[in-house]
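Tutorial handout. Part one gives the primary structure; part two gives the three-dimensional structure as tokens.
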Amino acid sequence: MKTRILLGFVGVVTALWGAWLVLDVPRPVEVGAWFVAGPIVHDLVLAPVVAVLGWAFRGPAKVGAVISGVLILISVPLVWQESPINPGLHDRDYVGGLAITVGVVWVLVAATAIARKAARARPASGRS
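Part two.
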């Protein structure tokens, strides 16, 4: 119980610190939009896709969908920004990088699914 109270306290302090930092943001309306848009995108897009995949597919596809969704949600601010915040740091092709990363995830998902199917199709030889 003490651990829960301590973790709750840390969470509240962290949230208050974040709220304090938001006060210094030049356009706080944009921050508010992210607080509203993030849950809406999650609830209307990501959660239903994962639920349908969970109903229709097994492990590898679920994992791939969750990883892809998280990568997409994390990259949205960088993909949609108007210009680099720090020209030396943020001057990448984020859409291309995201596409490659999600592509690698799904290649690994396909390889895992194929390997599992091959392992199931292999007869159990030498076992008694």
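Part three, for discussion. The two ends are 50 Å apart (CA to CA). The mean pLDDT is 82.
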